[in-house]
């Protein structure tokens, strides 16, 4: 199947910590048979280098190296390209996820700035009433961060903070990353098997009196 025949999502990776989340999300969407339109901010590239050791001198090449053959289903858009397909509401996508999302990008979306392709594509999702999922990452948060999140939540944007859960007994970093990516996919009705759901494991949860 060609890239254009697949249903597609936009994935944004910003300069918040947790680049691994964005990369795993792209892998999971490709695995589920979707095409991905990818936007990475300059700070996002910096964090890919710092946290995952990516060689980011040639960006397209870095993507091909990271995703191998599946990179054929990724369309990478430079963040300055405000004339890209995904800048227009007439270009149809299933939705957009920004994972991880910095407080800077969060603010620019909450204020409707549309000052680069990331915030413009997010703005398009909201104006067209399409799903937008944001994974904010910062700690601690001050009132402006929280207000920006509330503004967007009131617009129907799904906020999925990068907060791990421990009730499913994660053993590895992969378990923690997969859980969050799975929660994002749940918001978008994308089937996945990234974690075992509460109540679906063979092992019954222990009661307090046992
Ligand atoms: C290694 C590293 C980690 C960072 N982590 C965060 C973070 O978790 N949250 C955040 O809001 N900013 C973080 N920053 C700062 C942002 O990258 C910075 O504010 C940048 O301007 C955001 O730009 P963007 O929104 O275009 O990606 C981090 C920067 C670096 C270099």
The overall pLDDT, averaged over residues, is 94
Name the overall outline: globular
Number of strands: 6
Distance between the termini: 53 Å
What kind of sheet is the major sheet? 6 strands, parallel
> Helix count, per DSSP?
7
Radius of gyration equals 17 Å
Topology as a string of helices (H) and strands (E): EHEHHEEHHEHEH
Please describe what this structure looks like.
38% of the residues lie in helices and 14% in strands. It has seven helices and six strands; from the N terminus they run E-H-E-H-H-E-E-H-H-E-H-E-H. The chain has helices at residues 19-31, 42-52, 59-67, 103-110, 117-127, 143-154, 173-187, and strands spanning 8-13, 35-40, 74-77, 95-101, 132-136, 158-159. It has a six-stranded parallel beta sheet with strand order 3-2-1-4-5-6, sandwiched between helices. Helix 1 (19-31) packs across helix 7 and helix 4 crosses helix 6 (143-154). The model has no long low-confidence stretch (mean pLDDT 94). The protein binds flavin mononucleotide (FMN).
């Amino acid at each position: 199947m060609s890239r254009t025949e697949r249903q597609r999502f936009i994935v944004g990776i910003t300069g918040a910590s947790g680049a691994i989340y964005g990369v795993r999300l792209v892998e999971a969407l490709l695995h589920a048979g979707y095409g991905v339109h990818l936007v990475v901010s300059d700070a996002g590239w910096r964090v890919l280098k710092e946290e995952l050791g990516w060689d980011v001198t040639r960006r397209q090449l870095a993507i091909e190296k990271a995703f191998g053959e599946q990179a054929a289903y990724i369309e990478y858009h430079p963040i300055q390209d405000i004339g890209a397909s995904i800048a227009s509401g007439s270009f149809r996508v299933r939705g957009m996820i920004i994972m991880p999302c910095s407080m800077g990008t969060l603010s620019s979306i909450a204020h409707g700035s549309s000052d680069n392709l990331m915030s413009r594509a997010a703005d398009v999702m909201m104006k067209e009433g399409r799903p937008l999922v944001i994974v904010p990452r910062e700690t601690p948060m001050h009132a402006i961060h929280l207000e920006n999140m509330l503004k967007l939540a009131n617009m129907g944007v799904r906020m999925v903070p990068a907060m791990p859960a421990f009730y499913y007994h994660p053993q590895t970093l992969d378990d923690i990353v997969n859980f969050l990516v799975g929660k994002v996919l749940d918001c978008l009705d994308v089937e996945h098997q990234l974690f075992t759901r509460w109540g679906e494991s063979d092992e019954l949860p222990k009661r307090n009196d046992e």
